[in-house]
């Protein structure tokens, strides 16, 4: 009996090790590539631990920009800035509008509530490819192409439904008694919501914030089609251009990829408790 | 009371958002401008010049800014990305760009749809008389000139002379059969991994290479009457057989060709893994002699001719690119100034000196200063007599896509040549009417 | 005057109906403002042909839809997308359950191992595609290096150089990124199973395998159904992988639907057929969405 337990333990550790390898190895290789010199990376047989660790690639991509508009360094920095601005603004607006709507859909009884919920759910499923050309035509007619604000509005259209959906499921889980108690004290509905309900759903708020940020940060398709200029291009677009424009420059691409992945990955890693609750709430409980 | 608070908080949030987004915008729009007087700004969308490893176009664009006070945003992307951006931009009548790439295969389509501005009123006699007539011709349609060439992109056959010498081969191959034999010898002696690698990746570069192969086997996808006629087209069948056998049976063509683009092909050649470069851009000669980028310094040579089935079918590809002004541009005058600057003879010579690009001005080919730096241009001269361009047809993009997709199926052996050709014909039939 | 308005707003705020409308209005305005008009516009486009020279849209009835089904490349991408979707979803879910079962055991560093599961999920899909493209590189890629050094393959291969291997390489890249999401959700569902259930199963004489089928699976089943539907919806819309990894090649072997629609519209300027194909995708996703809603709503109520 005891031996079989030991065997089981060993098996679990072995499998866990394989899982860690499977999940981490590809990303670690990306990170190692970004810390290598080109000469080391292109040797065969390949050395798995680069003999010369260097941060020059990061220096080049982050501080190598000059006053030009087409070199990799300046492209990257401006894209980094654009990505941050767009993601933060979208997150802020989506949270503000979304929480109010979520409250209404979760707590208030009014005609049209159900169709509204359905709308919120269904619009998340519309493939962007079905909207892209009309949006393109409208935006070019209105001279809104290559503009951060247009991108912000478009991103809102899919981040907002998601925020509403998740927040609604959080709010629905809070017992109605808590709100009623506040109401007896003479609070108006909205006030009870803002001062009592919202503070106790902070974990939901945190999850939603992170989701909204990651969604807008990682978005590629709209950005690809709507932005070409320095003032509007986001990080995902710029790093794909590295891989085509600089053709064989695997190092620059890896470096850009690592930097672009850091904000979402770090956020997700440090706030994973919230994300877990968000995932289960948003996806499964509805 | 509450309502007041509520509205106040809305105002506050909006305000905060505006501040956040506001600073972002001002920081990016301030970039480069600095002074407050009104400056004209143009946006230029061009693919990166394949030989420009030193930021030459960028540097010259800044110089142009200094001299004229016109601000320029130069956007560089890969050719295929630029192509996607520009076609949809033109089709939807947007006005994001003032100067755009005009590829030699787009002229008919862009001109018939009135997407670009005829340049007749802008150009002076100097350009008309001084620029290579073949180039101007390529960018004219129904008597109007639509683009000024900025990249005289003609390709040449280069080879690794040192490796050929080491194998005891005295002369570079003149025919495709010789190329195969020499590759085999080089491979048997362990001098190279493969004879050559081609960029056949599913993209425009793949189409270019296939077009080159068909030309140099004496064939063409499109017959004299503008029809795609491939059945029993002997030269084409030979060209495809040659590639297919070379990739799968004789194995002297690197199988990675199927997914390679120009950069990969250059990488492999510069590493010394192959001996022949079928269609190298002129500047590759310099790159190959740059110890930072190449392991074959001093080893390569330009052949006096490019291989064909026989001498008469020897061909090199010319893929010139021009700058054009979209009809929708609101800064046509400034756009023209930029084009004029970037195509002037002075600029053209500097470009040749700094990045080894071929000139667009006829008499620069006899310029003693340039010939002193690029003595091998005289070999280019012999090859360029055989230069041929791509097809300029209205449905080129669809056609090119069909050929790319079906050809790879043939080359991988997924489809017989006969069936593959039938597939090309039937797929092309939908839109070639 | 202002007093009066404020008073009216304050009153309005306590009526469910008025407050409800007031609160959802801005959100719906943004969402429908961006989506509704383009959605209808492209429906119109799918029945029209664009005349670029004269900038007009001419109504041509069902022509685009008929043309679409005669287009062998569309049929090809439809087939590929179906295969891609089915294989990725099955692989993600079975692998996801397997990993979740391991991570549900007690062992040291379990928190850490569970923690890194979040990494592929958070990684931008663009970075994922770039990463795998580099790993699959025919000349310098890590996969080639690994397999040759382990003597599994004799010489370097071009993994993306053959339609079937390219498609499977793409499927693998997608499975790698999407599986952890399944793991996390299944783990959450597993944590709801009390040890008692297993105990009683054990008393009934069930072995581990039977316990999995009788106890575990029924409890995680609802989660799996919902995941399968959602994963299918996302898989059908996959764009980044063909765009970056393969460009749809070789020989159209990885030309997933989204990518082919993108090509038809942006490269060939066939706006009409692009729109009709996009409506095909939309139709399929809507059917799946209805299934999703059906599973979510208990007693006919979407909570």
Please outline what is shown here.
The complex is a heterotrimer of chains A (about 290), B (about 425) and C (about 300). Chain B is an alpha/beta fold and about 425 residues long. Chain B contains 18 helices and 13 strands.
Features:
heterotrimer; A: 286 residues; mainly alpha; MetI-like fold; 2 domains; 14 helices; globular; B: 433 residues; alpha/beta; D-Maltodextrin-Binding Protein, domain 2; 5-stranded mixed beta sheet; 4-stranded mixed beta sheet; 18 helices; 47% helix; transmembrane (chain C); transport (chain C); Sugar ABC transporter permease (chain C)
Poorly predicted spans of chain A? none
Mean pLDDT level of chain A: 85
The separation of the N and C termini of chain A measures: 44 Å
User: CATH H-level name of the largest domain in chain A... which superfamily?
Assistant: MetI-like
Shape of chain C: globular
Radius of gyration of chain A: 24 Å
In one word, what is the shape of chain A? Answer: globular
CATH topology of the largest domain in chain A: MetI-like fold
Helix content of chain A: over 70%
- What would CATH call the homologous superfamily of the largest domain in chain C? MetI-like
CATH class of the largest domain in chain C: Mainly Alpha
Main β-sheet of chain C, in a few words? 2 strands, antiparallel
In N-to-C order, the SSE pattern of chain C is HHEEHHHHHHHHHHHH
* Total tally of structural domains of chain A: 2
Structural class of chain A: mainly alpha
Number of helices of chain C: 14
Major sheet of chain A: size, sense and barrel closure?
none
Radius of gyration of chain C: 25 Å
- Most extensive interface between two protein chains, with residue counts: A-C, 99 and 100 residues
Organism (chain A): Cohnella endophytica
InterPro entries (chain A): BP-dep_ABC_trans_perm, MetI-like, MetI-like_sf
Protein name (chain A): Carbohydrate ABC transporter permease
Subcellular location (chain A): Cell membrane
């Amino acid at each position: 009996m005891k031996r079989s337990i030991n065997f089981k333990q060993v098996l679990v550790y072995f499998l866990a090790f394989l899982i860690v390898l499977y999940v981490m190895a590809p990303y670690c290789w990306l990170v190692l590539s970004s810390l290598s010199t080109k000469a080391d990376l292109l040797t065969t047989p390949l050395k798995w631990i680069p003999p010369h660790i260097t941060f020059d690639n990061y220096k080049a991509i982050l501080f190598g920009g000059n006053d030009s508009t087409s070199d990799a360094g300046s492209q990257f920095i401006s894209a980094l800035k654009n990505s941050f601005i767009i993601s933060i603004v979208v997150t802020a607006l989506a949270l503000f509008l979304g929480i109010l709507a979520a409250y209404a859909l979760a707590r208030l009884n009014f005609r049209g509530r159900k169709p509204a919920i359905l709308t919120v759910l269904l619009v998340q499923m519309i493939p962007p490819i079905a909207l892209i050309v009309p949006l393109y035509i409208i935006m070019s007619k209105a001279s809104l192409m290559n503009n951060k604000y247009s991108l912000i509005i478009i991103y809102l259209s899919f981040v907002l439904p998601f925020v509403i959906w998740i927040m609604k499921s959080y709010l629905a889980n809070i017992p109605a008694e808590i709100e009623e108690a506040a109401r007896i004290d003479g609070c108006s509905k909205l006030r009870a919501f803002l001062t009592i309900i919202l503070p106790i759903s902070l974990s939901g708020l945190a999850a939603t914030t992170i989701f909204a940020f990651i969604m807008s940060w990682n978005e590629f398709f709209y950005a690809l089609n709507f932005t070409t200029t320095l003032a509007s291009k986001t990080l995902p677009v710029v790093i794909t251009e590295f891989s085509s424009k600089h053709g064989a420059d695997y190092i620059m691409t890896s470096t850009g990829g690592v930097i672009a992945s850091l904000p979402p990955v770090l956020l997700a890693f440090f706030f994973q408790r919230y994300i877990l609750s968000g995932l289960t709430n948003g996806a499964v409980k509805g | 009371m509450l309502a007041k608070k509520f509205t106040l908080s809305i105002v506050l949030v909006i305000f905060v958002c505006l501040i956040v987004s506001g600073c972002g915008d001002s920081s990016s729009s301030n970039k480069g401008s600095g002074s407050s007087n009104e400056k004209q700004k143009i946006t230029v969308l061009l693919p990166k010049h394949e030989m420009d490893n030193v930021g030459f176009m960028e540097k010259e664009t800044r110089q142009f800014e200094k001299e004229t006070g016109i601000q320029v945003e130069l956007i560089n992307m890969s050719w295929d990305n630029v192509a996607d951006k520009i076609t949809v931009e033109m089709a939807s009548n947007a006005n994001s760009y003032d100067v755009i790439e005009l590829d030699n295969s787009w002229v008919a389509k862009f001109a018939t749809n009135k997407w670009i501005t005829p340049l007749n009123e802008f150009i002076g006699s100097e350009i008309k008389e001084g620029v290579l007539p073949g180039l101007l011709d390529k960018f004219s349609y129904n008597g109007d000139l639509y683009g000024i060439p900025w990249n005289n992109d003609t390709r040449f056959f280069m080879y690794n002379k040192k490796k050929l010498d080491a194998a005891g081969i005295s002369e570079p191959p003149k025919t495709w059969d010789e190329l195969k034999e020499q590759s085999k010898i080089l491979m048997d002696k362990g001098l190279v991994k493969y004879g050559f690698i081609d960029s056949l990746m599913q993209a425009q570069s793949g189409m270019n290479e296939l077009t080159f192969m068909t030309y140099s086997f004496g064939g063409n996808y499109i017959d004299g009457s503008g029809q795609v006629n491939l059945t029993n087209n002997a030269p084409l069948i030979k060209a495809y057989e040659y590639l297919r056998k070379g990739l799968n049976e004789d194995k002297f063509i690197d199988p990675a060709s199927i997914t390679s683009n120009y950069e990969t092909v250059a990488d492999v050649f510069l590493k010394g893994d192959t001996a022949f470069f079928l269609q190298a851009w002129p500047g590759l000669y310099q790159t190959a002699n740059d110890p930072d980028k190449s392991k074959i310094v001093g080893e390569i040579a330009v052949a006096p001719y490019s291989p064909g089935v026989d001498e008469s079918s020897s061909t090199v590809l010319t893929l010139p690119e021009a700058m054009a002004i979209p009809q929708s541009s609101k800064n046509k005058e400034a756009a023209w100034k930029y084009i004029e600057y970037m195509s002037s003879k002075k600029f053209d010579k500097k470009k040749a000196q700094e990045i080894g690009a071929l000139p667009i001005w006829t008499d620069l080919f006899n310029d003693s200063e340039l010939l002193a730096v690029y003595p091998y241009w005289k070999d280019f001269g012999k090859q360029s007599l055989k230069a041929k361009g791509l097809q300029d047809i209205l449905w080129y993009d669809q056609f090119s896509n069909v050929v790319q997709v079906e050809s790879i199926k043939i080359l991988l052996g997924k489809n017989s040549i006969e069936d593959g050709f039938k597939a090309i014909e039937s797929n092309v039939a939908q839109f070639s009417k | 005057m202002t007093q009066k308005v404020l008073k009216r707003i304050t009153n309005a705020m306590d009526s469910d109906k008025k407050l409800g409308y007031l609160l959802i209005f801005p959100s719906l305005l943004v969402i429908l403002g961006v989506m509704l008009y383009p959605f209808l516009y492209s429906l119109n486009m799918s029945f029209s042909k664009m005349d670029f020279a004269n900038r007009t849209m001419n109504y041509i009835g069902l022509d685009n839809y008929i043309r679409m089904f005669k287009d062998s490349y569309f049929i090809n991408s439809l087939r590929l997308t179906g295969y891609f979707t089915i294989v990725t979803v099955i692989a993600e879910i079975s692998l996801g359950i397997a990993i979740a079962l391991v991570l549900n055991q007690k062992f040291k560093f379990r928190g850490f191992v569970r923690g890194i599961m979040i990494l592929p999920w958070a990684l931008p899909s663009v970075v994922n595609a770039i990463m795998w493209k580099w790993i699959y590189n025919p000349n310098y890629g890590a996969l080639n290096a690994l397999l040759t050094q382990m003597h599994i393959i004799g010489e370097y291969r071009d993994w993306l150089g053959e339609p079937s291997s390219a498609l499977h390489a793409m499927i693998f890249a997608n499975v790698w990124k999407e599986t952890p999401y399944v793991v996390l959700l299944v783990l959450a569902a597993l944590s709801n199973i009390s040890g008692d259930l297993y105990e009683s199963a054990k008393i009934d004489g069930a072995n581990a395998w039977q316990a999995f089928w009788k106890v575990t699976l029924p409890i995680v089943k609802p989660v799996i159904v919902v995941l399968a539907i959602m994963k299918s919806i996302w898989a059908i819309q996959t764009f980044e992988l063909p765009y970056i990894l393969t460009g749809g090649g070789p020989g159209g072997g990885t030309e997933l639907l989204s990518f082919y629609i993108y090509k038809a519209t942006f490269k060939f300027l066939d706006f009409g057929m692009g729109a009709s194909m996009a409506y095909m995708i939309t139709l399929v996703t809507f059917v799946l969405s209805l299934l999703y809603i059906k599973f979510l709503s208990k007693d006919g109520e979407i909570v």
